[in-house]
Amino acid sequence: MCGRYTLDASAEDISRRFGAPARQVKVSPSYNVSPGQLMPAITLESDGTRAIELMVWGIHRFFGKDKTRVLINTRAENAFGGFWRKTVFAQRCLIPATGFYEWKLTKDGKIPYCIRPKDDALYAFAGIWEDWQNDEGQRLRTYSIMTSAANEETKCIHDRMPIVLHRTDEAAWLDVASGSQNAIERLLCPSEDGRFEMYEVGTAVNNPRNNGSSLLLSAK
User: Fold this and answer.
1) Number of domains in the chain
2) Rounded-to-integer distance, Cα 137 and Cα 11, Å
3) CATH for 66
4) Domain assignment of residue 172, given as a range
């Protein structure tokens, strides 16, 4: 899964990288993005232009009468079944990020690691979005990050990983007006080995209230 990530970037950085006008969207660097946080996502407008929108991390889904769960991740294996199918086909987005955290289970407890691509300082997770109305009647846009089984190099830390798109695949993921199931499935696969740098970080990242650049420092 992906339960925390980093976005060390401004709205202007995101605008330049993804070709989406900022339109007065305010974005502050975050070194410990946690579920429930309001974060930027890239969507495709009906006229084909890209937009930066602020969304809440975690899609609400009903499971039985009056029961909901907040799903921060969506398994690629389930993308075309049940209630996910419509969303994956019609409501895809890019989630800008600069790294993510995973925790390795050891005999001494869980050890946090920072994982990030070597070749792209600012990249995108494959995401999906949904509208949600909270108890106060406020309508919010929410998102979930697509995940796959871990590749060989990261499975020593965790058995799941987020879908990190290549730049050349971002347009195809955003373009919900075209693309067969086979074309979408091609994008929902683990990253190739050798793509990431991974290193142990301090346990301060365990607390979502901690959010400073020192979280990225190596623990060794």
Assistant:
1) 1
2) 28
3) 3.90.1680.10
4) 4-216
Query: Do the strands 109-117 and 196-200 form a parallel or antiparallel pair, or are they unpaired?
Result: antiparallel
Task: State yes or no: is 197 an active-site residue.
Answer: no
Q: What is the residue whose two structure tokens read 């974005």?
A: 27
| 55 three-class SS | strand
* Predicted local distance difference test score (pLDDT) of residue 65: 63
- Name the residue among 163, 220, 149, 141 with its Cα closest to residue 5: 163
Half-sphere exposure of 220 (CA within 13 A, CB side): 7
Percent of the chain with pLDDT over 90: 82
pLDDT, tens digit (0-9, with 9 covering 90-100), for 139-161: 899 999 999 999 999 999 999 99
Quick one: how far is CA 183 from the chain centroid?
20
What's the pLDDT tens digit per position in 93-125?
999 999 999 999 999 899 999 999 998 899 999
Residue 8's pLDDT is what?
A: 97
Instruction: Identify whether the C-beta of residue 125 lies closer than 8 Å to the C-beta of residue 41.
Output: no
Residue 66 has pLDDT above 70, yes or no: no
For residue 2, indicate whether it is catalytic. Answer: yes
Q: Which of 2, 93, 114, 130 is catalytic?
A: 2
Contacts of 68 (CB under 8 A, 6+ apart): 60, 61, 62
Q: Which of 12, 53, 93, 102 is catalytic?
A: 102
